[in-house]
Amino acid sequence: MERTFIMIKPDGVQRGLVGDVIGRFERKGFTLVGMKLMAVSRELAEKHYDVHKDKPFFGGLVDFITSSPVVAMVWEGDSVVASARTLIGATNPISSAPGTIRGDFGITIGRNLIHGSDAVETAQREIALWFHEAELASWAPATKDWLYE
Ligand code: DAT
Ligand code: MG
After folding, report:
1. What's the pLDDT tens digit per position in 8-21?
2. Containing H/E element for 2?
3. pTM of the entire structure?
4. 147 CA distance to ligand 2 centroid (A)?
5. How far is residue 55's CA from residue 58's CA, in Å, rounded to a whole number?
6. Which atom of ligand 1 sits closest to the CA of residue 49?
7. Ligand with an atom nearest the CA of residue 125
8. Is the dihedral of CA 59, 125, 118, 77 positive or negative?
9. Are residues 53 and 46 in contact, defined by beta-carbon separation less than 8 angstroms?
10. Mean pLDDT across the stretch 89-105?
11. How many CB atoms lie under 10 A from the CB of residue 73?
């Protein structure tokens, strides 16, 4: 079983899309193992987006992520890292496929609603950055045998 880090960005929270986004992951069959609504410090935002620190959009990205609360989550399931990226859609919402979160709800790259880890190792780093171990619950959903053969 894999885990991934998912964050509903300030635009998703402000636009009232939290329930819809969570519902998509639930209906897919993934298991929620951690969730919190939180204001993000500059320090945390800069660490999270460290890989982009030399990009021209870095300052604006950190300003945006710290501008209003986010919903940070950890989801679990087979191949959840790659599958979550598929559910989320391409980075620029104007060309994300319809049916994806960004494709259905977004227009511009700087307001693309949601973050998802891009690889298993990235997910491990991001989960450790955003969550304490005690904030994560390991549990077996009653639906497991109806989702996996
Ligand atoms: P993703 O979020 O799909 O993993 P990324 O890691 O390349 O995309 O970039 C992180 C975020 O930075 C992205 O969700 C939105 C923002 N971003 C990326 N490229 C950008 C650009 N050219 N202009 C403005 N913001 C950008
Ligand atoms: Mg990324």
Report:
1. 999 999 999 999 99
2. strand 2-8
3. 0.98
4. 28
5. 5
6. 10
7. 2
8. negative
9. yes
10. 98
11. 26
User: Which distant-in-sequence residues (6+ apart) come within 8 Å of 2 by Cβ?
Assistant: 76, 77, 78, 79, 80, 81, 120, 123
Pairing of strands 31-38, 70-77: antiparallel
Band (pLDDT 50/70/90 cuts) for residue 72 is very high
* DSSP per residue, 17-59: -HHHHHHHHHHHT-EEEEEEEEPPPHHHHHHHTGGGTTSTTHH
Mean pLDDT (the chain, rounded): 98
Place of tokens 């992951």: 25
What six digits make up the tokens of 87?
């559910």
* Structure tokens given for 29: 């069959």
Which amino acid is it at 54?
Answer: D
Strand, coil or helix: 72: strand
Give yes or no for residue 118 CB within 6 A of ligand 1. Answer: yes
Note the pLDDT tens digit of each residue in 109-138.
Answer: 999 999 999 999 999 999 999 999 999 999
Rounded Cα–Cα distance for residues 131 and 137 (Å)? 11
